Amino acid sequence: MIDCLRIPCIRLLPITLSAEITDYETLCKLVNKVNEMIEDINTNSTIINNHSEAIKELQNMVNYLNGELVKIANGEYMDVYIEALGKWIDRNLQEIVAKIVKQVFFGLGGKDNAYFVAWIPESWSDIDFDTIMECGNENWGHLVLRY
Fold first, then answer.
1. Per-residue pLDDT of the chain (147 residues; tens, 9 = 90+)
2. Which residues pair with 118 in a beta bridge?
3. Single pTM value for the model
4. End-to-end CA separation in angstroms for the chain
5. How far is residue 21's CA from residue 96's CA, in Å, rounded to a whole number?
6. Which residues sit opposite 115 in a β-bridge?
7. By the 8 A CB rule, do 104 and 126 touch?
8. Which of 125, 83, 86 is nearest to 102 (CA)?
9. What's the rounded Cα separation, in Å, for the pair 64 and 70?
10. Handedness of CA 80, 86, 91, 93 (dihedral sign)
11. CB–CB of 145/128 below 8 Å?
12. What tens digit of pLDDT does each residue of 72-110 get?
């Protein structure tokens, strides 16, 4: 903080009767202007100091959050996330499955209902339905889903 100039400028009657400003009056005006500038500098210094404190506080918060992110990356909160994920899955699994999975209808079809038929939704286009047809295989005739 800068102290103001302490030069006494007393308003006196003009020393001369002309319209010219005397050296003393010029000095007084200069002192007043310098003191205004000093007050502005002091005000700005206070504002800058306040901002500096806020910046330090924000930096401390950023450092704390970086530390927490490092802990997360190192798996220190894994059990918390696994528990939260488990609860979320418990609450939302039926809705998720309902959006993904559509019903498959099985029945008999073809001429005289002689064939086993599965009606598969289009959303299952990446799944192939097949039957195991190896005669010696214990799973012979079983339905197989390949994806």
1. 667 666 666 665 555 565 666 777 778 888 888 888 888 888 888 888 888 888 999 999 999 999 999 998 898 988 988 999 999 999 998 888 777 766 777 788 877 877 777 777 777 778 888 888 888 889 888 888 887
2. 106
3. 0.37
4. 76
5. 88
6. 109
7. no
8. 125
9. 10
10. positive
11. yes
12. 889 898 898 899 999 999 999 888 877 776 677 778 887
User: If you count them, how many residues does the chain have?
Assistant: 147
Query: Looking at this protein, which amino acid is placed at residue 80?
Result: V
Residue 1's identity, in one-letter code, is: M
Q: Which tokens in the block code for residue 57?
A: 């506080």
Question: What CA–CA distance (Å, rounded) separates 107 from 83?
Answer: 41
Q: CB within 8 A of 98, min separation 6: which ones?
A: none
Token pair, residue 77, equals 């909160």
Q: Do 28 and 15 touch, CB atoms closer than 8 A?
A: no
